Amino acid sequence: MQYLCHMQQTKSHIALLTAGLIFGANYWIAKGLMPDWFTPAQILFLRISVSAVLFWLVGLAYPKDPLTKNELLRIALCSLLGVVLNQYLFFEGLRLSHPVQTAILHTTSPIFVMLFASLIIGEKTSWSKIIGIALGSVGAVSIVLQKADVNFSTDTLTGNLFIMGNIVSYSLYLVLIKPVMAKHNALTVIKWAFLFGFLFSTPFTAGTLSKIPWSAMPDTILYSISFVVFGATFLAYLLTIYALKFLPALVVGFYIYLQPLLAGFIGWMFYRDKPTIVNFIAAVLIFTGVYLVNRPAKEPKTYA
Questions:
Q1: Any idea where the domains of the chain sit in the sequence?
Q2: Quick one: pLDDT band at residue 304, thresholds 50, 70, 90?
Q3: Would you give the DSSP letter of residue 62?
Q4: What is the pLDDT confidence band of residue 61, given thresholds at 50, 70 and 90?
Q5: First CA to last CA distance, the chain
Q6: What's the 3-state SS for 121-183?
Q7: Residue 46 CA: distances (Å) to CA of 34, 50, 219, 231
Q8: Rounded CA separation 243/245 (Å)
């Protein structure tokens, strides 16, 4: 039983690393879609509608896993926070702000997750986790600051506020969805979350589809929107929700720190953005933080 639990946790970390790699690439790819080809509302509709269909189709292969009324209501709330608001605010913020500033602000996510997890579902927080979050934060910020001219001016203030809303909504989503995940199959939860997300978002987004210039769109943009819809939505959400079943919300939220590191790796591999000594030091800090956040708490000593 202990071996099985260990294997599930290992698979969960692999799932989170994969999701982090996808999200890291998403910084590069999603920015190129706006504003010339897509608006945030158009991307939101495509992401949610296509993923909802895919999740329900995959769900046909699994046995029925009935939910109570209260659980459905909780999933509906989580859908509003983690599917609709999270995605819309992210793309609207990314459109108005700068990818570097977006990455910097996202490093606050684990702090919100830790706070909400402690207040709402009573997850325990140790000093090693707090130190791990601090180290990860320093490492992530150092990566995104080393070459960037970061200027939080009034021109990008609105975008940065959207990103902060995106961070808070996603952090709440990770925490609130955790109790339902503990009782049900991950696919059951995510398919209902995206169905509710589709119902919530369609009245405000479906009407924008007629303005998408599909006929004039080059192949590279079609590949990019396919990645955003299938990779950064369907696959990434599935991997994250799977990991959340076996790992604390704080651990899942901490993987946000890997995204600037992975984005830098992608830039090195595909955009010839050479790594520096700062990258290596930051990587050590981030992975040290990962170890501290994931280190199990010591059992209290007992004396006969």
A1: 2-124+149-248
A2: very low
A3: S
A4: confident
A5: 28
A6: CCCCCCHHHHHHHHHHHHHHHHHHHCCCCCCCCHHHHHHHHHHHHHHHHHHHHHHHHHHHHCC
A7: 14, 6, 17, 13
A8: 5
| Secondary-structure percent of the chain, ordered helix, strand, coil, rounded to 5 | 80, 0, 20
**CA within 13 Å, CB half, 295:** 17
Tokens 């150092």 sit on residue: 142
Question: And the tokens for 267?
Answer: 């830039």
Closest CA to 181 of 192, 197, 166, 165: 192
Place of tokens 């790699």: 21
- CA dist 81 to 25, 72, 195, Å? 23, 14, 14
Residues 6+ apart with CB under 8 A from 288: 132, 135
* Other CB atoms within 10 A of residue 171 CB: 26
How many residues in total does the chain contain? 304
DSSP result, 70-113:
HHHHHHHHHHIIIIIIHHHHHHHHHHHS-HHHHHHHHTTHHHHH
pLDDT tens digits along 203-224: 989 888 889 999 899 999 999 9
Contact 110, 136 (CB under 8 A): yes
Contacts of 166 (CB under 8 A, 6+ apart): 85, 86, 89, 90, 93
Q: Please state, in angstroms and rounded to a whole number, the distance separating the CA atoms of residues 157 and 162.
A: 9
| CA–CA dist 180, 200 (Å, integer) | 20
pTM reported for the whole predicted model: 0.75
Is 93 exposed, middle or buried, given 0-12, 13-18 or 19+ CB atoms closer than 10 A? buried
* Token duo for residue 299: 């059992």
> Which amino acid would we find at residue 236?
A
Sign of CA dihedral 152, 158, 160, 164: positive
* DSSP-derived secondary structure letter, 256: G
